[in-house]
Amino acid sequence: MRSVRRGSIACAVLVVLALLQAPAVANAEQPVEFGPSPIVDTVDAVTDDEARAVEAAIAEAADRSGRQLFVAYVSEFEDPADAGSWATETANDNNMGSEDYLLAVAIDGRAYHLSAAEDASLSAGDIDRIALEVIEPHLRDGDWAAAAIAGAEAIGGGGGSGGGLGWLWIALLVVVAAVVVV
């Protein structure tokens, strides 16, 4: 009688443990497939208006530079669980090319990765700088849309890059001011 009771208790404990694990597994996501939009948002990280702003920034960057950003917002990365491998698998599954860049963000997992092909026109150093200096501050603040917009601008060589040709405009203005004064 005791062994039957112990078996029932052990079975009940296993069922409870399995039920407690179910929500965590349900929130984790395998690599995603992109449709016509460069954004996949399975967790409603951005509003419709924010998504339109992200898409506009992505389109502008692509028009300007030929570089296309894709953004995936998921709860957590699963199979593979680390951000870099998940992003690489997603890029491979979607046949992304040398000028396609992927920003993968796990909202609940508090992880992200900006990936690029090995033969991309932006160097690994450029990608790391964009991720750390441009995207990550917005992610830290929980501003998912701003992270993608700033990332698109930086990848496209626009204002969000923190570099580019901004210094040229300043130098040009100084020269024009000097000519006007003289």
UniProtKB/TrEMBL annotation:
Organism: Agromyces binzhouensis
Record-given protein name: TPM domain-containing protein
Membrane-crossing segments per the record: 164-181
Lineage of the organism: Bacteria, Bacillati, Actinomycetota, Actinomycetes, Micrococcales
Annotated InterPro entries: TPM_dom
One Pfam family recorded for the sequence: TPM_phosphatase
Signal sequence, start to end: 1-28
Domain TPM: 39-156
UniProt keywords, alphabetically: Membrane, Signal, Transmembrane, Transmembrane helix
Claim: Signal is one of the keywords in the record: yes
